[in-house]
Queue: 2 jobs
Job 1
Amino acid sequence: SYELTQPPSVSVSPGQTARITCSGDALPKQYAYWYQQKPGQAPVLVIYKDSERPSGIPERFSGSSSGTTVTLTISGVQAEDEADYYCQSADSSGTSVVFGGGTKLTVL
Amino acid sequence: EVQLVQSGAEVKKPGESLKISCKGSGYSFTSYWIGWVRQMPGKGLEWMGIIYPGDSDTRYSPSFQGQVTISADKSISTAYLQWSSLKASDTAMYYCVRRTVTTLAFDIWGQGTMVTVSS
């Protein structure tokens, strides 16, 4: 079955830039989506179609794509950005949706 | 306000059946897909399946095919996730999600329904 691979954890100091990667063979063909989940809360969509930002999401959140890897970048990280982040995409046929394993972002 | 409101937490015994619900409001319920996502305690997100209430077209993740049933009643803007025989391993938080027709983005999430299966 198709898999998306994320690093389990990323740590940054406040004000620095955090980059979270997500790798998968079908990413050149399928868009990626990113979700933020804080403890005890439902996930929230922060990036769609690789690099688009929904209304209400701060400009410090951005996304990019290169080959089989997509990246969520958080510029000027704030304490409130500490959360789990999940990428989501589909297999090459577009039939089956899959989530990455999640990355815990720690703000030091 | 666009929202998905899910039914409350459930505590069940192994072998029992269960149907949880997700009611959409603030938008045209028949114009968007509604999916279900499982999150086991301390674990990541897993896509279970999705339904288009407009015509009841339903797709399942291979991992959940035959294990659950997804349905919808468009007359009351409500989607359902049901089990015929619960197992302890079904203990998890279940989220319903709205998906746009043109992308795979899950743009609206319900608040989640915690299902606990224990003898």
Note: Chain A has a mean pLDDT of 96.
Job 2
Amino acid sequence: EIVLTQSPATLSLSPGERATLSCRASQSVSSYLAWYQQKPGQAPRLLISDASNRATGIPARFSASGSGTDFTLTITSLEPEDFAVYYCQQRGNWPPLTFGGGTKVQIK
Amino acid sequence: QVQLVQSGAEVKKPGASVKISCKASGYMFTSYYMHWVRQAPGQGLEWMGIINPSGGSTTYAQKLQGRVTMTRDTATSTVYMELSSLRSEDTAVYYCARDLVAGTPSGAFDVWGQGTMVTVSS
């Protein structure tokens, strides 16, 4: 089973600042990594698929990169609605599909 | 619009079973695989398994093998997830989630249900 480790666990930033989130896989997942955003009481929402492809309707301030074992999600300028928990998820080697433990982006 | 609507919250005793429904609308039901994902309170996301709504074939997470059953009803565009021998650790929000790609199980999720809270308590 592929283990995904996200860092940091919590990121405290102000609106307008840049957020950089990391996801590391225990073995290569090629480019088969997705990112999801989850707000309290809501289901996760797909942001990025296949390492860098923004999902429909996702603003351009969200971008992602990486391949193999190291991946990054960047939010260039945080909007108030971006404060949430972000999960990475791999589909490079499954079953099982696995998720990282999440990074909480909170208001500083 | 594409939508997944799940059944309501459940409270069960340890050892019981729970069956959750997920009704799809706004797209061709049999064209997209469906996954189930759960989230314990304050915890991360755990993939439970996948069903092909067309043929009904399933693949389950190994840790749930023998306790989980996923089925579908093409007449009502509904998938079901039944979990048996419930224990307190099964307390979680359960989500159905549509696979991203039509016709093949890609392993990413583009549409999610609203979630169903299952509480296991004596």
Note: Residues 49 and 60 of chain B are 4 Å apart (CA to CA).
